[in-house]
Amino acid sequence: MTMKRLLRTLRTALTVTALLVPATLLLHPAHAAGQAATFRSVTGDVTSKGGAKVKGAVVHLKDTKSLSQRSYITADDGQFKFGQLSTGTDYEVWADLNGEKSAVKTLSSFDNKNAMEISLKMPN
């Protein structure tokens, strides 16, 4: 291989690399910044004052930034789960059933856990 041909091959390889690296960074910004996933989840249960699992309670999750809400209706086991929550947002969680409301729990953006578990207790 001649020196001229070697330099041309090297220049081509550098040009291709220069074009592909920025495109790769645009396609995968989280990996490019070295960041982990920016989502978390919250699971838990709703219980009565006496400790029994509450079926049919509506669990509310409120984004305190956008004020949007999601809801989940508990099954026989009283369990609920919300996924893909932003780690940079505070949330409020509470349950209601037949006009009664549990205490409101806050999920802080300063808490760095990716999976959180909370219990909501109905007043009666």
Automatic annotation (TrEMBL):
Keyword Signal: yes
GO MF term set: carbohydrate binding
Pfam families, alphabetized: CarboxypepD_reg
Presence of keyword Oxidoreductase: no
Signal peptide (from-to): 1-32
Keyword terms, alphabetized: Signal
Descriptive protein name: Carboxypeptidase regulatory-like domain-containing protein
